[in-house]
């Protein structure tokens, strides 16, 4: 799905306040610390709770393999003044060069309410529509996750109904609100400009 420029772990995206970069082994402790918060983990389908050190290690390995293969793009979110401290994640995965990809995100609880998730997701959406042939991006959120529902609205996603999502970390299926964002409909961060994606 993603072209060669994203396949190297020096790839990163810059926004006004953030760096988005590949996860690396040294991020495991910070990822575990934030993802192990019940209010973070329990609103997702895939983050187990409790979240242990081996879970963070397995995620980082899997994310790096998918990034390197171009099948998706998983980027940790870091403040510009602390680029070695991940505070969350944004990702797109599950698509070939055409069709739809699935957006996912989470943010450490101390950073909620500051617009970081929206800023990071907008940059990744801009990138995806700018350098891939994706027609649309889909996503989902639990109906009681007001934080996530609001982010989808700010990003320009359209609700398409409710559905059932496999949630192995929750022990079964969960009901979710379904969302879709078609090419050309995104509320982009950069307007007509493409996001910067330096290779160093």
Summarize the model shown:
The chain is of the alpha+beta class and 200 residues long.
Can you walk me through this structure?
With 200 residues, this protein is an alpha+beta fold. The chain contains five helices and eight strands, in the order ββαααβββαβαββ. Strands 1-2-3-4-5-6-8-7 form an eight-stranded mixed β-sheet, with helices on both faces. Helix 1 crosses helix 3.
- Give, in spatial order, the strands making up the sheet with the most strands: 1-2-3-4-5-6-8-7
Q: What's the helix count?
A: 5
How many distinct beta strands?
A: 8
Helix content: 25-40%
Q: Looking at the chains present, what oligomeric state does this protein adopt? A: single chain
Q: Structural class of the secondary structure composition?
A: alpha+beta
Per the principal axes of the C-alpha atoms, what is the gross shape? globular
**What amount of the residues lies in strands?**
25-35%
Q: How far is the first residue's CA from the last residue's CA? A: 22 Å
Overall pLDDT score: 90
- SSE succession: EEHHHEEEHEHEE
Radius of gyration: 16 Å
Low-confidence stretches: 190-195
Describe the sheet with the most strands: 8 strands, mixed
Can you lay out the helices and strands and say which pair or pack?
Blueprint: E1 12-14, E2 18-21, H1 28-35, H2 38-41, H3 53-69, E3 72-79, E4 88-93, E5 98-107, H4 116-131, E6 133-141, H5 146-155, E7 158-167, E8 172-182
């Amino acid at each position: 799905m993603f072209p060669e420029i994203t396949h190297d772990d020096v790839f990163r995206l810059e926004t006004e306040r953030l760096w988005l970069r590949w996860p690396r082994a040294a991020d495991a402790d910070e990822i575990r610390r934030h993802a192990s918060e019940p209010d973070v983990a329990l609103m997702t389908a895939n983050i187990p709770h409790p979240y242990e050190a081996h879970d963070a290690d397995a995620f980082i390995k899997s994310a790096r393999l998918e990034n390197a293969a171009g099948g998706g793009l998983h980027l940790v979110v870091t403040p510009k003044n602390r680029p070695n401290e991940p505070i969350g994640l944004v990702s797109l995965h599950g698509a070939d060069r055409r069709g739809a990809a699935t957006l996912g995100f989470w943010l450490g609880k101390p950073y909620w309410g500051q617009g970081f998730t929206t800023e990071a997701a907008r940059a990744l959406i801009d990138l995806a529509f700018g350098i891939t042939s994706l027609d649309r991006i889909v996503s989902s959120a639990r109906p009681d996750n007001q934080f996530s529902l609001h982010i989808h609205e700010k990003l320009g996603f359209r609700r398409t109904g409710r559905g059932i999502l496999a949630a192995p970390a929750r022990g079964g299926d969960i009901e979710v609100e379904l969302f879709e964002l078609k090419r050309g409909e995104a509320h982009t961060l950069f307007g007509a400009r493409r996001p910067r994606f330096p290779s160093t």
